[in-house]
Amino acid sequence: MVNWVQVYRKHVLTLVAKSAGLREHAVDVDDAGTVINFWLPRHKAQEGTQKQIKLPVVLVHGFAGDGIMTWWLQVGALSRSLYYLKKIRPDLINFGGSTSPSPDRSVGFQVRCLAAALQKLGVAACDVVGFSYGGPVVFEMAAVHPGLVRSVVVSGGRISFTDVAIDAMLGRFGARTLTGLMLPESIQGVRSLLSVAMYMKLSFPRRFLEDFLKVSMYVLLK
To answer: Measuring CA to CA, which residue among 160, 155, 190, 158 is closest to residue 175?
Structure first.
């Protein structure tokens, strides 16, 4: 049976990304098998426009998405921007095309992997934008790697996931762990996740929720 969430990502969003001149590029982070997938500009900037480049901008997604699903509405506008000629959209570990055999799903692990992958891309300094869960990731990356991060912009995210904030969120949605909320294993869990991830209260058909759950379970098993 066709999984429409996978179809949407693999075909519709990939077409949008490629039409905006983006390509996928995987970076090996370590010898253990950790890989971060990036969406990068397909072509290098022309020499005549180099003077307009300030720094690369790194767009970090939240839960219930990945580097292309979260930012697809901004792809076209950013592709026409000359201020930032290098827009980098990573998939965080266990999202999109990024995988790791490590059971660690902490913000600190995401930061270590993303910083290492950016350095392997040759990024010496960058501006970072974080959405939702991407907020704590970019704030911690700025704190741990001040030479790598010049500035931070966050939308819909916290500075950090404190114990008090986590307990309050888990209590609100009836989840036992943060991983259980963000990587659901039931239809009700998917509903809770989407209610956290979206500011609009939308009603999704059960078929969509089932397809989303199958994709989420695949992430858990990666």
So the answer is: 190
